[in-house]
Amino acid sequence: MVRVWGVDLSDIFQEVKEDVRSAQLRALWDRYGILVIGGVVALIAGVAITVYWQDQQREKREAAAERFLAGEKLLLEGDKAGAVEHFTKFSQEAVAVGYAFLSRMKEAAAQVEAGNSGGAVAVYDALASDSRFDALHRDLAALKAAMLLADSASPDELKLRFAPLAKSENPWRHSAREQLAFMALRAGEIDQARSNFQALADDLSAPNGIRGRAAEILSTFPAVAPVQPDSKLPDAAPAAGSPASSGEKK
Known about the structure:
With 250 residues, the chain is mainly α.
């Protein structure tokens, strides 16, 4: 401790340091204070906007769910025409892509229940070509349309519809292949039908229901006859030294 005229110099130095720090802080605040305040205000505003947006989205989802369930209620009550109209309007107004797809699928289902299969196919075909939806959902709509036409469309049209869905990379391939197998069976192409159903029964990646149906149908087919040796084949050559081989005559 250093004292001069009874004054502790360390206290003076400490006070000077504090004054210098205060002056530096004031200078920093004068230069950057407005930016700090602006940043805090922006942060608060950003949080408020995010919370508001999330609340708005939640309210929209809840409202969409309520409207969707209202259409379901119409179906349960047997008001098929009302359900078709409800889901058609809802699909046009739905903001969420998921609800737009579901409402159109329900619209098609309501058309089927109302006996208007042609209207349902039109809805499914429109969904299958709608670029707003991903390939999985578009292909599902295409499969639904093809299955509705299974008893009325020509074999050529059905093959054109099912063939892309039956490709190995398509998630709906097993359902499409099952329909192609039934087409072969209806056409009397037993060997082709047997081959198709056998492939499904042996496919471990196929759903259990499809594999089980394929195995059950295979059990109704007549047994395949074993391959018989061809009787027209020439007899084995006689052994060397035998009368036949030497050409000797009795």
